[in-house]
């Protein structure tokens, strides 16, 4: 029997820091996110005028300002037509949904979720779903734009999208997360589908989340629709290699940067990794397997350091059993600021946006900074890193392994023909190394840094597709 809805809103409205701008939508129902946006928001003026907020807004506003600054630089480099520039600068389509979920204690709480399709000129929209307390529309807009460039850079036939729900999955039970996911998937059904928009895992979501979305959509259609998401478990149509794909791609790009830019082999190098989730754990483990001495790892709960190198497979088991790395035997504690300043060959950022800024970029001593996360370095940090000789492997290249194998998963779902890990890994390697070669070549030819080169290549491809398709009607 359903329990009654009981009032849970704290006096004055907002209930926690995670619930920025919370407000009551109806009596007795808690709203878990910013509330005022219309259900389908037109591109807000903020999108057209980001500079005023750069560096001073919410994490989402800062991420959007960074994404737009990177786009503007590429548009200038390409001398982009003004009409195309305006088209590519604004998200194509945005959906905001608010939906109730019954919590384990019987209360009903209203969550806010988003899906933004930035651009679909090159194919269906593609991008992850994030469950995080600070997820907001601006963050999703930024991440959607980065997805457009990433898909174009590695030449997969997708546009860019992103989505998310403002929530703290770490504070929710598996049943609550499943209920939230199934309802969010239902709300998203106006947009998602194998031919239109294909979500995948991101921060706070994983293969199980994708399985629930695939099942929900399949229940509504009356038949299995595996191609509606990627990053599913292999048992229900997922691809071999997808779970490790982003980390594997990060390692391939690091290996190339080490070989091409520094002339050093991967084996015997040292590394530090921020983040131990989908991307960070796989990257650390694959670096360890490749003979790299991973000396430090941090996650949201703290970090571990060991000069002789960490036993990454052991830490993975510890994480699965205890949910934290902190206090692992034989390790010393380390925080992010120490990790950023470690004297290592490779620093991998695999957590969130805005980690390396003008304030701490000067402390980075690593020779290679690999952006496993999206937007971990702010634009004002880039020149400092460049002047200090740090080789930055930019996010849209570094972490593109995930979307490459997502593309292969989508193709396998369409064909109902599945490939071996060897075939998948070979295609991943070829696709990402082709993009790496194009980026370094462009950077050298134009005397620009790899991020600027990567954006120029990607924006040029999307601009070409946009121009070829022309204006409708
Ligand atoms: P995840 O939720 O699986 O892992 C995030 C990790 O970051 C966790 O270990 C968490 O503890 C850690 N973290 C959070 N805050 C931290 C802090 N302040 N200090 C240190 N660690 C912190 O997420 P994920 O899927 O691994 O995504 C990480 C990044 O990679 C995001 O930027 C995401 O957009 C990007 N990315 C993910 C994929 C993918 O396939 N999952 C693909 C491309 C890019």
What is the number of E strands? Answer: 13
Q: Helical stretch count?
A: 15
Task: Summarize the main sheet.
Answer: 7 strands, mixed
The percent range for strand residues is 15-25%
* SS content category: alpha/beta
Radius of gyration, Cα only, in angstroms?
21 Å
Helix content: 40-55%
- Could you give the order of the helices and strands? EHHHEEEHEHEHHEHEEHEHEEHEHHHH
Low-confidence stretches: 1-55
Overall residue-averaged pLDDT value: 90
Describe the structure.
By secondary structure, the chain is of the alpha/beta class. It has 15 helices and 13 strands. The protein has a seven-stranded mixed sheet with strand order 10-9-8-7-11-12-13. Strand 7, helix 8 and strand 8 form a beta-alpha-beta unit. Helix 2 packs across helix 15. The chain starts with 29 loop residues before the first strand and ends with a helix. The N terminus is likely disordered. The structure holds nicotinamide-adenine-dinucleotide. Nicotinamide-adenine-dinucleotide (NAD) binds next to helix 8 and strand 8.
Feature tags:
473 residues, alpha/beta, 7-stranded mixed sheet, 6-stranded mixed sheet, 13 strands, disordered N terminus, binds nicotinamide-adenine-dinucleotide
Brief write-up:
With 473 residues, the protein is of the alpha/beta class. The protein contains 15 helices and 13 strands.
Q: Helices and strands in order, then pairings?
A:
Blueprint: E1 30-31, H1 45-48, H2 59-78, H3 82-89, E2 93-102, E3 108-119, E4 125-132, H4 137-153, E5 159-166, H5 174-188, E6 197-201, H6 207-221, H7 242-262, E7 270-274, H8 278-289, E8 293-299, E9 302-305, H9 312-322, E10 332-333, H10 336-340, E11 346-349, E12 368-371, H11 382-387, E13 391-393, H12 395-398, H13 401-415, H14 421-446, H15 450-469
Parallel strand pairs: 1-3, 4-5, 4-6, 7-8, 7-11, 11-12, 12-13
Antiparallel strand pairs: 2-3, 3-5, 8-9, 9-10
Bound molecules: nicotinamide-adenine-dinucleotide.
The site of nicotinamide-adenine-dinucleotide (NAD) has 24 residues, from helix 8 and strand 8.
